[in-house]
Amino acid sequence: MKRFIAVFCVLLSYGASCQTIQINTKNNNLNLYRLRLERSTYLVYFQNGPDTPKYNIEVWDRDIRQTVENTYTISWVRQNYKEVHRYTIRTGQGFQPLSEEIVVNGLGESRKDELRKYYHFKDDKVFTDNDTIKHNQVRFTMENTALAFNWELDLEILGMLPFEDYKQFDINFYHPGSKSKPEYHTYQKVREEKLSINDQEFSCWVLKIDHNENQWSEFWVDKQTHKVLQMRDFFYGRFRYKKLVI
C-alpha cells in the first residue's frame, strides 16, 4: 500500500510539472510551423472603461517574411495622427533575435529629424550600432541576453506556444533598449471562450500575464490558426486593446 501511494505521488507530481513549460531561445520549445508568413493589421487604442471613448488610436501593420536562409524578417509599421514608427526586426531560424532597427518620423518632418535606433543581439548581449546614421540616440548595452526572445514579437511568439499540452508558459523575454534585465515571464492559459470578429465567431484560448497587482494583459489566441486575435492590457485604471482587423 505504501509503495502504491509513493508511486501515485510521483505520477501526480510528474503530471503537475508537465502543465508548465519553459520557453527560451535554446530549448526549441516553440512550434515554428505555426508561424504564419503573412501581413496582419491591428487596431490599437485606449479606453478608460468598456463604454468610454477610444483615444490614442494607432494602426499596426506587421508583415512576416522568411528569407532564403530560413531566417525571418518582420516589418512592423505603427502609425498615429502625429508620427510613424517603422521597425525591421530580424530573427534566426529558431526565431532567436538577431537585430532590430527603428525609424520614427513625425508627420511632415524631414529625414534629418528622424529618430533612429539599431540594436544587435550577439555574443550574449544587446548593443547599439556604432554608425550614427543607423543609431542617433544614446548608446546602450545589456548583458546576458542569449536566452531571451525579443518582447516586441510577443504576438507572434505566443501563437507558437504548445497550447494543447501545457497550461503555463514561462517565457524568457527582453525588450530592446530597456534597462530591465531579461527574465522569465509567466503566461497562464486561464480559460477558453468564443470571440466575435466581423460577425464571425472564433474559439480561443485566453492567456494571461500578471505584471504586478495593478497591471495585467490577456491574449485571445485562435484555436484553429494559433493567431492572436485580440489583446487587452489593464494598467492603473485604464485599458489598451489590440484587435486584429485583417
Instruction: Enumerate how many helices there are, as a single number.
Output: 2
Number of domains: 1
End-to-end C-alpha gap: 59 Å
How would you describe the shape? Answer: globular
Q: How would you sum up this structure in a few lines?
A:
The protein has 246 residues and is mainly beta.
Molecular structure report:
This protein has two helices and 16 strands. Strand 2 (39-47) and strand 3 (55-66) form a beta hairpin. It is mainly β. It has a single domain, classed as outer membrane lipoprotein receptor (LolB), chain A, CATH 2.50.20. The model is unreliable at 1-17 (pLDDT under 50). 9% of the residues lie in helices and 52% in strands. It has a 16-stranded mixed sheet that branches. It has helices at 2-17, 154-158, and strands at 20-23, 39-47, 55-66, 72-79, 83-91, 97-106, 115-122, 125-128, 141-143, 149-150, 168-174, 183-197, 200-212, 215-222, 228-235, 238-244.
